[in-house]
Amino acid sequence: MDLLMENTPTNDELCIVLERLIKNWETEVVEFKEAGKDYDKNKIGQYFSAISNEANLKSLQHGWLVFGVRNKDKAIVGSEYRNSKGLDTLKQEISVGTTGGISFIEIYEVYPCVGGEKKRVILFQIPAATTAIPTGWYDHFYGRNGESLGALSVEELDRIRGQEKKDWSKQIIPEAELKHLDKNAIWLARENYKKKMNKSYISEEVDGMTDEQFLSKLKLMINGKITNAAM
């Protein structure tokens, strides 16, 4: 159900995403609405908060709000909710009320063919809450209990807020090896380190180290593995 964001997906690709959402949907990270010509923006914000938080708790990158699909039987009925320009405006409108001003990753209009007739369905791609920061809608935090929308429980709030923020620079690159690093860059790092420390005994120590020992000392290698910072 992930979309490659480098390229704009085709209608056929979006139809496949929609089909998978209907067949393999997870109650708490996907919500289906008929949403004919209009839908309460405040309700959209509440679902945005809830789906964003639930996606975080399930270690997913995003969740979905789908307009034009009847919830009870997942029948594709189509939606006339806003035009393309109106959907672009909605992104900004939602960001006004969310924690950190986040909004939809993307809003897709997809046109599946049902009974020989094209139906308009809208896929709102909602980002998971940021690590340790629950997503609120006007300072209220929402969650899901099955298909029900309600306040995020205290336990779930604590789980999100208690998450450890990962330091990207310290994360390991599994396929990287010492041979992939520029020898001149390592030499320059040694010289800069010696100059910064400005101690003769430290300079001697650094000169006596292998590249792996030196990089490990600077935490650019951890347990013999290359980190993002080293690259």
From TrEMBL:
Keywords: ATP-binding, Nucleotide-binding. Residues 26-148 form the Schlafen AlbA-2 domain. The keyword Nucleotide-binding applies. Pfam families: SLFN_AlbA_2. The keyword Glycosyltransferase does not apply. InterPro entries: Schlafen_AlbA_2_dom, Schlafen_AlbA_2_dom_sf. GO terms for molecular function: ATP binding. PANTHER family: GLPR-RELATED TRANSCRIPTIONAL REPRESSOR, SCHLAFEN ALBA-2 DOMAIN-CONTAINING PROTEIN. This is ATP-binding protein. It comes from Candidatus Pullilachnospira stercoravium.
